[in-house]
C-alpha cells in the first residue's frame, strides 16, 4: 500500500482516525495480496490479518518519517 496515496491534511480526520484509516488500508492490501496468491480464483477461505500503524503528531501536525538515521 502506498501511504502517500492518502496524504494527511488535518481537515477530514482526527490524528487517531488517520492512523486507523492507514492501518485499515494496509490490512486491505494484505488481504488482496493473500487472495492473489491463491491458485483458486473463487478462494474465499477466511484469514486473519492483523494490521497496525504508528505515527507521531505534534500540535496537530504529522511528523514524517526520519530522512536519515541521525
Would you write up a description of this structure?
The protein is an alpha+beta fold and 70 residues long. 33% of the residues lie in helices and 9% in strands. The chain has one helix spanning 15-37, and strands spanning 56-58, 61-63. A two-stranded antiparallel ribbon has the order 1-2. A hairpin with a 2-residue loop joins strand 1 (56-58) and strand 2 (61-63). It is elongated.
Comma- or semicolon-separated keywords:
2 strands; two-stranded antiparallel sheet; alpha+beta; 70 residues
For the biggest sheet, the summary is: 2 strands, antiparallel
Helix-strand sequence: HEE
As residue ranges, the low-confidence spans are none
Integer-rounded radius of gyration: 16 Å
* Number of continuous helical runs: 1
Average predicted local confidence, pLDDT: 82
Please give the structural blueprint.
Elements: H1 15-37, E1 56-58, E2 61-63
Antiparallel strand pairs: 1-2
Explain briefly what this protein structure is.
The chain is built from one helix and two strands.
Amino acid at each position: 500500500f502506498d501511504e502517500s496515496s492518502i496524504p494527511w491534511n488535518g481537515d477530514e480526520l482526527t490524528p487517531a482516525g488517520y492512523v486507523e484509516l492507514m492501518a485499515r488500508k494496509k490490512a486491505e492490501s494484505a488481504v488482496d495480496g493473500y487472495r492473489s496468491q491463491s491458485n483458486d480464483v473463487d478462494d474465499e477461505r477466511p484469514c486473519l490479518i492483523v494490521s497496525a500503524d504508528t505515527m507521531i503528531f505534534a500540535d496537530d501536525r504529522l511528523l514524517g518519517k526520519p530522512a536519515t538515521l541521525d
